[in-house]
Amino acid sequence: MIRTSSLTKRYGRITAVDDLDLDVREGDVYGFLGANGSGKTTTVRMLLGLVLATSGSIEVMGRAMPSGARQVLPEVGALVEGPAAYAHLSGRANLALFDAMGQGARRATRAGRVDDALARVGLGGVDSRPVHAYSLGMRQRLGLANALLRRPRLLVLDEPTNGLDPQGIREIRGLLLELNAAGTTVFLSSHLLAEIEQMCTRVGVLDRGRLVVQEQLDVLQQPTGRVVVHTPDADRARALLDGQVEHQEGERLLVRVPDAAALNALLVGGGVRVASLSAERRTLEDVVLAATSSGSDTFSAPAVGR
Asked: Would strands 14-20 and 154-158 be described as parallel, antiparallel, or unpaired?
């Protein structure tokens, strides 16, 4: 659905995006993750033909961009850098106007498309208030409704949950997963680790304009080959395991063993009380911090209730 080759964007001496090779496949929920200022929005704008690349190539749905924009963009829903809207008009009026401006829009079915899009993002009961009276979360929902007007094959979203409360975030997450299950490919740009980890099937990590990770999320989170053991007999377990414990923090041990079941049998047989035992898996935060030069404070921590 999206493929770039050596995509680069420079502003004078500043390289915002550097030699980027994206591979977004049909059916993906692709999480494009990076700290603020890492080049995510510049990349998204190039994908949509809003900014011209300095060098490299872009292909969206099999067509070169931006030359193929007239054929591609009617099948793409996008929300970039916050929702655009005419502040003096209502949300419904904005969507009707945006629909009328689109290629191939059928006037006879416009009202139904607008109502459906508003309902899908939780604005079905919206009144005639002008957009300037909307909260940030309502504006964000309206921007997403605009992206859904044409029932796109591809959704390109830049920080789509910005300004939403935890309930709203869960609702939008559920909507995007529902759309993906129905066949829409989702490209989601975000700096929120929890948002990507809970929703995406494939992940790309951008660090200072360079793509440093691109892989299936389940591959990135495969077992590390270590086992996490919680036991009140930590010292006894450590002595019994004879050098296999790589790290100890109170009652928590990290043990390098090939067979977790055999480890459990050894510990129990040696009189060690095992409170829990599980394979260690890397979190997405572990993956990102290992691959980037950024500190953890540049990414958002998971929000309570998400």
From this structure: unpaired
Residue among 20, 37, 16 nearest 298 (CA): 37
Kind and range of the H or E run holding 92: helix 91-101
pTM for the full predicted model: 0.82
Write the CB contacts of 11 (distance below 8 Å, at least 6 apart in sequence): none
Residue 183 sits in the same domain as residue 101: yes
Residue 298 lies in a domain: no
For residue 1, give the nearest of 68, 62, 66, 65 by alpha carbon.
Answer: 62
Environment class of residue 212 by beta-carbon count within 10 Å: exposed (0-12), middle (13-18) or buried (19+)? middle
pLDDT, averaged per 10 consecutive residues of the chain (306 residues), comes to 97 96 97 91 94 97 94 91 81 86 70 88 84 86 87 91 85 90 94 89 95 94 92 95 92 94 95 95 89 59 39
What's the pLDDT at 294?
Answer: 54
For 236, the domain range is 224-281
Q: What is the CATH number of the domain that holds 270?
A: 3.30.70.100
**Residue with structure tokens 């480890």?**
263
How many domains does the chain contain in total?
Answer: 2
Backbone dihedral region of 170: left (phi > 0), alpha (psi from -120 to 50 degrees) or beta? alpha
